[in-house]
Amino acid sequence: MFTGIVAAVGTIEALEQLADGLRVTVHAGSLDLSDVQIGDSIAIQGACMTAVAINGPRFVVEVSRESLNLTVGLDRPGEVNLEKALRLADRLGGHLVSGHVDGLGQVVHFAPVGESWRLDIQVPPLLSKYFAYKGSATVNGTSLTVNSVVDSAQGAVISINLIPHTISVTTLRHLRTGDRVNLEVDLIARYVERMLAGVHLPG
Questions:
Q1: Domain positions in the chain
Q2: Is 57 helix (H, G, I), strand (E, B) or coil?
Q3: What is the pLDDT of residues 164-176, one digit of tens each?
Q4: By C-alpha distance, which of 172, 139, 46 is closest to 100?
């Protein structure tokens, strides 16, 4: 589990082709790896990955073809948002995040508004029902609050306000119109949907 509070911006430095995926070397930047062991989880751009090697400020993960097909930002060199797994004693500054990317959104607007930035994302139809006004959303591993939702036949467009701090400490500052982003819906919304569906077990 994670919180969606990005702890550091790291850099994917090297990619090695595997039989069915990639071996990815990440420089952790300012992220402290002193308490990270092989087998621990680290969220990279919102996708939960397992550290298979640690060497000083660098760690290595192996990304399956399935994960590569369902995410963006893990298959090329560049900056990435990083967060170590949540401990029970940690503060929950964002919201509960599983690190399982539910789908890809597309940036349709990203521009400054006063001191902040407005980010509009087209959400695919299958995910649009999970986003609500003032609800939580995870975009590239960053916990954000939805300011508005506009539904359409193409799904929904969610609007998010990014404060200067968020822009300065995450990779969201690099977004451009047309870019795809990793989306994870709120866990609470997922469970509420199942309960309201009235699922009954046999017997």
A1: 8-84, 103-195
A2: coil
A3: 999 999 999 999 9
A4: 46
What's the CA gap between 186 and 96, in Å, rounded? 8
How far is Cα 13 from Cα 5, in angstroms, rounded to an integer? Answer: 23
Quick one: tokens of 109? 């607007």
Q: What is the pTM of this model?
A: 0.93
Q: Which tens digits make up the pLDDT trace of 177-188?
A: 999 999 999 988
The CB-based long-range contact list for 84-89 (8 Å cut-off, 24+ gap) reads: 84/7, 84/31, 84/35, 84/36, 84/40, 84/41, 84/42, 84/43, 85/1, 85/2, 85/40, 85/41, 85/42, 85/43, 85/48, 86/1, 86/2, 86/3
* Residue keyed to tokens 């997922």: 190
How many CA atoms lie within 13 Å of 184's alpha carbon, on the beta-carbon side?
Answer: 28
> Which of the following CATH numbers is that of domain 103-195: 3.40.50.280, 3.30.365.10, 2.40.30.20, 1.20.1300.10?
2.40.30.20
Domain 8-84 has CATH 3.20.20.370: no
Which residue in 93, 85, 96, 104 sits closest to 44, CA to CA? 85
Q: How far is CA 11 from CA 3, 14, 107, 111, in A?
A: 21, 9, 22, 25
